[in-house]
Write a structure and sequence with these properties.
This protein has a 4-stranded antiparallel beta sheet with strand order 1-2-3-4, with no helix packed on it. Strand 2 and strand 3 form a beta hairpin. The protein is built from no helices and 4 strands. The chain is mainly β. The structure holds zinc ion (ZN). The site of zinc ion has 8 residues, from loops.
Length: 74
């Protein structure tokens, strides 16, 4: 067996919004031992856009529909 599997040492699932089509979805943040930073790369499940760390926009959790920014209108 000479396959090289890349298995992250650490993984976290974020719920993010695609900057291209605004679809909320789960994206994995991975980190491998020896890497200086975790990897934030996710391909949008809806439009295929590749979302990088600079475009990572956390979305509200699915079970909590409050907007991320509360607009206090009187
Ligand atoms: Zn998208």
């Amino acid at each position: 067996m000479n396959r090289r599997l890349i298995i992250p040492d650490w993984i976290r699932f974020d719920r993010i919004v695609c900057p291209a089509c605004q679809t909320a979805q789960q994206a994995a943040v991975t980190w491998k031992n020896g890497d200086p930073f975790p990897t934030f790369i996710h391909r949008c499940v809806a439009c295929g856009y590749v979302i990088m760390e600079s475009e990572w926009q956390p979305a509200a959790p699915a079970d909590h529909q409050a907007p991320p920014f509360s607009e206090e209108t009187p």
